[in-house]
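Here is one chain, start to finish.
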Amino acid sequence: MPTASSVIEVPVSADQVWQLVGGFNALPDWLPLIVKSEPSEGGRVRHLQTADGGVVVERLQTFDNVARTYSYTIVESPFPVSAYLATLQVEALTESSAKVTWSGVFTAAAGTTDEAVEALFAGVYSGGLEALRGNFSA
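Its structure:
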């Protein structure tokens, strides 16, 4: 299965990072690609609107507030993938720095290649984490 991941160091505590990203419905707070997120099913599903008008629906699969991680699947999207499972995790490096990892596994849809979808999501993850770090820059 194709995979993609990105890791970034953020110059604030893991708790500060998790406070921003830990809510499943919090993507518009830190990810410029997402302009709106509407929860449903008690917060287990998020209906996202992308900056270019696309719609993505994702379902929360696991959530661990203590370990600062959650995983989710894509229910509906314009992306050429299926069987998508992604994880966002925040780990403490020191009292004042954190490591954030965003990774996913998926199956490329017919008509596209594993390499193409890996590059797509590697770009989403790395761009997203750069934007996240920008929230904590002076």
